[in-house]
């Protein structure tokens, strides 16, 4: 069994360099945010949770490099997506919240959480548990994935392929991070 341990990555206080160069796209719906992530895959973006002070419409936002804003707006317009707003993150208090969090558990296990969805794996990458959400596809996803090794799950067996709700989307984010941690070892 591999020794899985996720280091807690702390950033230095007072470093606003990334914030000053990034912006946030706020969407009306989760559907728009998810579609935009696919459309903007060639840009330097990440899906995040907007800070509560600026949250409108949905619980997902896209953080992007301000230098790419014109191209991003053009792509979204071309694909008929109208975000609620684009916000420059010049104020540190507007820092978006990370969607994916990793917690070391006893017995050499990790729990990776995204939103309300959690996936727990052992040191070899075996999926021990999937929990959270409340969406109708969560029990199905759990039945299809629990007990399998995360390294052996094919693209057509991932939560983003099998599911159809926000729970499946966030579980897939947790799944991708857990798989990355197991592969990196």
Structural description of this entry:
30% of the residues lie in helices and 22% in strands. The strands form two sheets. Strands 2-3-1-4 form a four-stranded antiparallel sheet. The protein has a four-stranded antiparallel sheet with strand order 5-6-7-8. A hairpin with a 2-residue loop joins strand 6 and strand 7. The protein has two domains: 78 residues, Alpha-Beta Plaits, CATH 3.30.70.2750; 85 residues, Sufe protein. Chain: A. It is of the alpha+beta class and 185 residues long. About 5% of the residues have low confidence. The chain has six helices and eight strands; from the N terminus they run H-E-H-E-E-H-E-E-E-E-E-H-H-H. The longest helix is centred in the C-terminal third of the chain and has 19 residues.
CATH architecture of the largest domain: Alpha-Beta Complex
The biggest beta sheet, please?
Answer: 4 strands, antiparallel
- CATH topology of the largest domain, by name, is Sufe protein. Chain: A
Q: How many helices in DSSP terms?
A: 6
Strand content: 15-25%
Which range best describes the helical content: under 10%, 10-25%, 25-40%, 40-55%, 55-70% or over 70%? 25-40%
């Amino acid at each position: 069994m591999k020794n899985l341990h996720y280091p807690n990555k702390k950033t230095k206080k007072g470093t606003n360099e990334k914030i000053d160069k990034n912006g946030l796209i706020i969407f009306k719906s989760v559907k728009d945010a998810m579609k935009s992530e696919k459309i903007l895959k060639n840009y330097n973006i990440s899906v995040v949770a907007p800070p509560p002070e600026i949250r409108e419409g949905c619980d997902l936002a896209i953080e992007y490099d301000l230098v790419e804003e014109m191209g991003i707006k053009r792509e979204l317009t071309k694909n008929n997506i109208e975000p609620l707003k684009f916000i420059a993150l010049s104020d540190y208090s507007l820092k978006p919240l990370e969607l994916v969090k990793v917690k070391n558990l006893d017995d050499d296990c990790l729990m990776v959480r995204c939103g309300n969805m959690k996936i727990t794996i052992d040191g070899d990458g075996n999926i021990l548990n999937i929990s959270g959400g409340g969406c109708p596809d969560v029990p199905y996803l759990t039945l299809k994935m629990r007990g399998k090794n995360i390294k052996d799950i094919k693209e057509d067996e991932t939560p983003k392929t099998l599911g159809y709700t926000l729970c499946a989307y966030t579980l897939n984010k947790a799944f991708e991070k857990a798989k990355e941690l197991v592969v990196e070892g």
